[in-house]
Structure prediction request, 304 residues.
Amino acid sequence: MISLYNYKQDLKEQGIIFSFSGPMSHDIIEGIGSAIRIKISEGENGDKNIALKVFSIFVEQVENVINYSVEKDSIDSDMGFGIVVVGKKDDIYFISGGNKIPNEKVEKLETMLSNLIAMDKEELKAFYKERRKAAKEGDSKGAGIGFIEMARKSTKPIEYNFIPVDDEYSFFTIKISI
Amino acid sequence: MENLYIEATKSSPEIDFNKDTNTLSVKGESYPENTAQFYEPVFEWLESYLEELEDAQVNVNMELIYFNSSSSKALMDIFDTLEEASEDGKNIVVNWIYDEDNDAALEYGEEFAEDMESLTFNLIEK
Prediction:
């Protein structure tokens, strides 16, 4: 049988504290989310505010996987397949999430994220308030606001990439630093 | 109409809307599985209540430790509804209650307050 030791060592080398890959549901947010909050807020260097920030990004990323991953058991399933990791490197926490999306959605997402990256704090705040006031659009379950929220909390510009999987799909990864 | 009480869960706040004392409280954390579904009865109750409301003062106590971005939108809709009622002459006071060591709760409160014109929006440290 395979040993998970090398896999675990890889995660450790990259500073990954939590890693979850598979079908995600709301229960994951509550369960793993609580563990993340406790782990970061307690102990000698524990910080409640950082813990809450990391948790809030984790929530938005898991919700994105649940709502937007094309890998689902059925179209109206409340679970989506994807991966979310939380780690710490050089004293900076990072939260990274990924899932498969249709190729036709890549351009729109790319445009939205590059727009957010180009904005300064005040512009992000104004855009956040504008989107919060606006009605929901199309299939977006408020995700526009989720990305703005992540951009506002991130201490570095949002990092992201798209890896082509096949003719139909790409794999989207996003990374936020706290 | 009846009072509205919804018990808190790990990811949804306690809703305690009392028409007899004119005190509406939201307390806890808000990242429900389905935000629209969770807040639907809250909006329905609020709209009927505001229709019947006369000149009594209403205290809205919001004490949220954490809420996700879709709840933020729902909260904005609640405040917009209260703001409209306030413009119509209703006497409504919102108390945004935050813990002194929760920086985000204070910031969110300040940002909601900035968007309100006629609605009284107090920031209260616990």
Q: What stands out?
A: The domain at 4-125 of chain B is CATH 3.30.750.24 (Transcription Regulator spoIIAA).
